[in-house]
Records
---
Amino acid sequence: MLNEQTIQVIKSTVPVLEIHGTAITKRFYERLFTSHPELLNIFNHANQKQGRQQAALANAVYAAAVHIDKLEAIIPVVKQIAHKHRSLGVRPEHYPIVGEHLLGAIKEVLGDAATEEILQAWAEAYGVIADAFIGIEAQMYEQTEQQLGGWADFRAFKVDRKVKESDVITSFYLIPEDGKSIASFEPGQYISVRMSIPGEPNTHIRQYSLSDSPEKPYYRISVKQEVETRDKPAGHVSNYLHQEVKEGDVLWLSAPAGDFVLDQQDERPVVLISGGVGLTPMVSMLNTMVEKQPHRPVTFIHAAQHGKLHAMRESVEQLARIHPQLSAYWCYNQPTDLDKETNAHHREGYIDSKWLQSIVPTRDAGFYFCGPTPFMRAVNGILKEWGIPQSDIHFEFFGPASSLEPV
Ligand code: HEM
């Protein structure tokens, strides 16, 4: 454990490091990839380019440092990151490498301000934080490997079927090449896909939520083809999956992971709110509930730009026809003429507080939401304003976790 003196040094230097956080983590990654280019096979290059990962790592280290004398207070956050690490194949031997370059980057960026005492304190703190991660990840690796149908690292899966769900979303049904069983999962969890693209030196790893219920002979992921926009380049891996990966091809998957999961002990009603491709974990939760908790009332709310971008509409409507406990609502912000003519949607515009309260039968429910960050901020604000307790609000970010506070 760290002594009081070290804890004081850490706490007094967190604000300084926060100011230089982006510079430190940028330098850290440059150093890391120069001396360990093989780690480019693990890290998401697109997140790197957009600076998203830099911010996530810096924030996590500082958050951990602030709580350095009571790390157990941030166990939920550590667990969420540890799920991601386990899914990516991060191993204990990686930690000293990351530590060395993080410390090296702090020294370079702070210059003379980084005294021996400060560097020593941070080296010790990093050791404590790393040990917390390594311990939790070791348990996760063990559970994953011992679970029926589970496996370590990456396993070959064949694309059994490719099904177009909307103009931009396609589902991939994946079955293990070895023909053996596959691990069950909690609805809401994701898998990592490791992809080699011909002609490229490094592999790419991406996470995709599982979009069907567990206990099927396949895993289903539903991937949005990310086209280029003003602030984002085209999705390298999603475009490759859509355009080049064919039925019969092999994808490498790590076992299901993630802590954004449906609470199946809870018998109260559930409200599932999604925006765009954020519907994938929600459909997994929905399919699971109609199979396993058929008496549990579900309100399924999906926001899309218009009908052509609305995935899985048919299958959810089909469920709603046969399950009276399920109500489904569609909100389009740019409905097409056809949408308008056919009354395809229940609301035009965005989800707001009044509409939400008019369609959700009770606020004594579990609320789950997923979608683009601005959508999530809006939904979170609406739920807070309605007085939904934090313990009933569950959400998941795509990509590195971010903040739900209004900007
Ligand atoms: C993701 C923190 C060590 C590799 C993350 C995230 C955080 C984080 C906050 C983002 C989680 C999310 O997406 O929600 C930390 C901390 C570490 C640490 C505090 C040390 C104590 C490591 C090590 C490796 C590693 C040793 C392996 C070389 C990754 C990768 C991702 C990730 C590859 C996903 C990033 C991406 O692909 O964009 N980590 N991490 N991390 N971490 Fe770590």
---
Amino acid sequence: MKWICTAAFLLISRVAMADGCQLNVSATDLMRFEQQTLQVDAQCTEVEVTLHHTGKLPASAMGHDWVLTKTADVASVANAGMNAGLVNNYQKPGDSRIVAATKVIGGGESTTVRFSTAQLDAGVSYSYFCSAPGHFSIMKGRFVLNAASSPAVAKNVAK
Ligand code: ZN
């Protein structure tokens, strides 16, 4: 998966991490993300997302992950991962449409993924979802680069 490949790069550039680049998202035993939208400052060169499972059920019964793709790819990536099994975090191995993803966790656990915003194309809608079978239709939200600081938007995503 792409996020593994970028891990080394992200460690090097970790000094660039700033406020507004670290996001938290919570998932529950009721098969919900508590956040419908995640906004990241457009000046961030890398983003760190931490998923918290605030429920009590184990990963085998109500496991959740956090997967970022283009909005248009959500359903196809979720369907492709459905048969990959918990061992693969319900993510099709090598699926290049996955921008970033965490592992599947159970209640009381948390997990973090870091990725570079250079992977995000300008003018494209991105969404996050849970790839556990049957979850993505409910467990999804918009991932938005906050355009408030527009000069940085052009600088960061015009590659
Ligand atoms: Zn889920």
---
Amino acid sequence: MLQLGKSQKAFDDAKRYLPGGVNSPVRSYRSVGSTPPFISSASGSRIYDIDNNEYIDFVLSWGPMILGHANPEVIASLQEAIPRGTSFGAPTLLETELAKKIQAFMPNMEMLRMVSSGTEATMSALRVARGYTGRDSIVKFIGNYHGHSDSLLVKAGSGLATFGVPDSPGVPKGVAENTITIPYNDIEAVKSLFAEKGDEIAAIIVEPVAGNMGCVPPVPGFLETLREVTKEHDAVLIFDEVMCGFRASSGGAQKLYKIKPDLTCLGKIVGGGMPMAVFGGSAKIMSQVAPSGPIYQAGTLSGNPIAVTAGLATLSILQRDPTIFKSVEDTTERLCEGYRKLAAEHGVPVQVQRVGSMFTIFFTDKPVLNFDDACACNNDHFQTFFHYNLERGIYYAPSSYESNFMSFAHKAADIDTTLEIAGEAFREIAKNM
Ligand code: PMP
């Protein structure tokens, strides 16, 4: 039995000072009705809590830690950078170096701007799209999550889906009215919307591989359609690759599916676990951003030297050894194939959906293509699976509306252990079917 006495105490104390005891809702474990382990440290594939429990981590800070936690080279570069000062609010050589590095992975990002979170990246990309086109309306897909800015907190996935909040109080009506939502992977809905209103639409923003309703790949033709209609109507196509960048492939979903968006948002891995994100794209559009153009965007800590250092170290390792992507993807596939076999052995209906090194086990017998499909999955089975695993040291995302992630630090023995416990968890589920 997992002992979480110290975490329980810490959680009770935190709740007096932080809403729900946390600084981001899904961390509260409210969705799974238990106490979240309070984390004290992490290393490689493992994460440790203040009760000295050890877990194999498939959350990986919700994606960033592709090299595993506390990668020695990343940590060493931070140790070297910190004594030089933690923030200057002035240009540094490192920022251009990182911009070049990002561009080497994502050549469509001819120019980019650094910010401090994925939310800022998508919010700013929308402003650029609106400023560039002179239009107000944007299109987003139901169950996609792009951070918590007003325009994008409409029918979003991730924590909103987990807590059943389609739209947040506090988003002005006038702002929400400019956000048109349609189902993910629905090619006909995209075409008919653009046939009717295409010339009023500033941008489509999309998770080209959805991760925030669980991992849902685009159906063939979906991304192509987005590219065609936006081109035809002079709207901006924004790929939000905050999660799938460096995970769907080394060059993100845009490389995997060979689609060139106008703007791309990156976060998570690009900051190597520090608060850092970017948006960028064609020089024609990005040159409209202040100070070279009139569209305003700014940040005191943007391009922060410590965050940039962590991002640079992470991307340098990935660039030096491109086989890392294949290796992480192969490990993910081995794990997913293992889940499929074990679930079948125990007669538990699952769809294990994977793109690159992101994956979700959906408890359903038919492929999950959109948010309705994700909502139709068996939540009781998910709950049983989640708790059975956590009790035995396997740390998954505490919601079925999330992706899990693999790192380069996860080795064969981690996968063996994980599959052994997954098999037992499927057996437990089968008992109650
Ligand atoms: N876009 C996507 C696709 C995301 O997955 C997330 C966060 N999970 C965000 C944007 C928002 O990023 P942040 O939490 O850094 O604001």
